[in-house]
Amino acid sequence: MASPAQPSVTDALATLAAACPSSPPAAALKALCRASLEASVRAALAAVLPHALAMAVEAPADHPALLYVWRLLRNAAAGCEDNQLALATALASSPLLHPNHLTALLAPPASPACAVAYLQLLVNVVSANEAAAAVLFDPALPVLSAVVASEAARAVDGLIGLVPLFVVRAAVAVPDLLPQSEPWLALVLELVAQLDTEDSLLFTNVVHLVELAADAGVLGAWLAAAKTASPDSAMELLKILDGLVHRAESEGGDVTAFTPLPLAETIMDDLVGDINAMLMPLAAGAPTAGSGSDSDDDDGLTGRIAVNRDVQDSAMALLRLRLRILGMVLGGAEPVLRDAAGSRGLVAGVTMLLKAVHAAQSHTVQARRARNGPDHDGSGIPDGLLAEVMRLVANAAFESPANQDEVRETDGMMVILDCCKLDERNPYLREWALMAVRNLTIDNTANQEVIAELETRGIAPGTDLDSLGIDAEIDEHGKLRVSRRK
């Protein structure tokens, strides 16, 4: 029973139907908003939706009852298919979808809550309704783009996060609606570029959108567009993908679920390009990996393998993201994915990168240990990079004779064997190196012979044994003898 202070739902419907659009009755609308939380009432609202839409168009932006108009429309669309389609059809040709209308809702003295209810209405209209989503999706693009570009919208908590939610709900209803055209891609990339804000709703919904894109096979196109149009967005997309794959790995799920072959090949090609960009300076007269140069200049292997440190931080971050993603994916991949890694030049590239990074770190550690102590190598190589490269090599070699041979022919075996030791800068390097040795030698006689032909020659230079007061030598029988210095 309605309270004495409020009209009944029936009275409110009648009042609303007869109301002048420029002066909507606040009491009637407030009662309807409360009542419309019930599904039976939402179904009865169909007859008055045109009146509510007219009020939304004609009422001044600062009208005290306007918020109830938007909330009534929002509630009417929630899970009511007939209302959803009716509203989608009406909104598609309505001035309510013009960006100027949104601007008016965001400008004082209008209430920001009106803008929130407005976008919530759009989300509700397309949710789980294929017909409504198909009708409203493209007409909504201008106003959604206006929201994302608006400084005023960024100041309204949760408002921009409703934009990717609209796209997600529409794409769930109609998968073919996932953004692929240039205007929609521009909107998606702008949303991704804004992920540095503290808007948790925006982050959650963008992540869900990227999941849908990966599952539908369009994430590769998004990454390709981001590379040229918005490098920051490319970085954020890869971070999200990295997180999704890592979550699948930690939960024992399918790590390849988010990286179908075309997307994996795109990331492989990009990583090969990253590696070539890093290794190109090696051709400019630098000692190659394993050359044994002991020069103590800052222009040695450090400057040639690592990047231009001033301008390439983002390039290094992208390279590491791609390394991590593919390192995880190849660990659970079908043979066709590992075959692609070999045929696209990735295995040769990461083996060269492995050699170069190892040489850069080894060179600078030996050259500077006396001056800086064992905790400073000065190479400019980020901690963990060597282990990430090793992981990819190990997983790419698993049950892949072609990749096993590629690593050997690129002279990677000795470097991998040299990494079978603890390295405080590269957690799990030893474990991944041992895994690489295992995967490289399974059913591969040539690789087994490389290891079998090794001879003991002495203690490797540059160890920390001296600082620990330990002497080590190889006796006449080829045995290692270790003793503490007295």
TrEMBL record:
The keyword Nucleotide-binding does not apply. One of its GO terms (cellular component) is cytosol. Residues 388-482 form the Ataxin-10 domain. Keywords: Cell cycle, Cell division. GO terms for biological process: cell division. The keyword Zinc does not apply. This is Ataxin 10. The lineage of its organism: Eukaryota, Apusozoa, Apusomonadida, Apusomonadidae, Thecamonas.
